[in-house]
Design a protein that fits this description.
The chain is an alpha/beta fold. The chain has a single domain, classed as Ribonuclease Z/Hydroxyacylglutathione hydrolase-like (Metallo-beta-lactamase, Chain A, 4-Layer Sandwich). It contains six helices and 14 strands.
Length: about 210
């Protein structure tokens, strides 16, 4: 499996390219900005994008949905509870003094336990609300991409509309911490970690 982590946009949200070496098929997770950088990374490995996946609808994670979809023609997926945010990306960014563009409407809605195929790999969708109503994580063979649900030594903010602290804590405990301790956790900002490390050391769960 190919995994490329690309910090994008002024808030340095992590965009991930996850590809199959054998078939050259890939998914793009959270294209939040810097579309040229994302497209160059895809071209370098000659990857064909089969799906564009959003962990949630905040502008720093979806800001490049439009140019990536235009360039790749790949279907866009997001949970229905965050889909309305896609029409307000520009205004949300403007409230932070930043520029972004609205996203196209999604082609498909993500549901808990859905599976998405690319190449020789399968992604399983885990609904992990708390940072937003429609927050999801994407589970693969040896990694989970958690958006802003969990960070190394921390958790996502819950003070945005649709956020709820207790819901987020339960999402982590019941959906993420039940996964294998050695599973790699790729977060929406900052460095990766593992499930076991966060269970042992994350101060929000001690």
């Amino acid at each position: 499996m190919i995994i490329k982590q690309i910090p994008v946009g002024p808030l340095q949200a992590n965009c991930f390219i996850v590809g199959c070496k054998q078939t050259k098929e890939a998914v793009v997770i959270d294209p939040g900005g810097d579309s040229d950088q994302i497209l160059m990374a895809l071209a370098k490995d000659q990857l064909t994008v089969k799906h564009i996946l959003n962990t949630h609808g905040h502008f720093d994670h979806v800001g490049a949905n439009a140019p990536i979809k235009k360039a790749t023609k790949a279907p866009l997926w997001i949970h229905k509870d965050d889909a309305e945010m896609l029409a307000y990306v520009a205004s949300s960014a403007s409230a932070w003094g930043l520029n972004s563009e609205n996203s196209p409407d999604p082609d498909q809605f993500l549901n808990d336990n859905d599976t998405i195929q690319f190449g020789q790999f399968t992604i399983t969708v885990l609904h992990t609300p708390g940072h937003s109503l429609g927050g999801v994580s994407f589970l693969t063979n040896n990694a989970v991409f958690v958006g802003d649900t969990l960070f190394e030594g921390s958790i996502g903010r819950t003070d945005f509309p649709g956020g709820d602290y207790n819901t987020l804590i339960q999402s982590v405990r019941n959906r993420l911490f039940t996964l294998s301790d050695d599973l790699q956790v790729y977060t929406g900002h900052g460095p990766s970690t593992t499930i076991g490390h966060e269970k042992r050391t994350n101060p929000f769960f001690q």
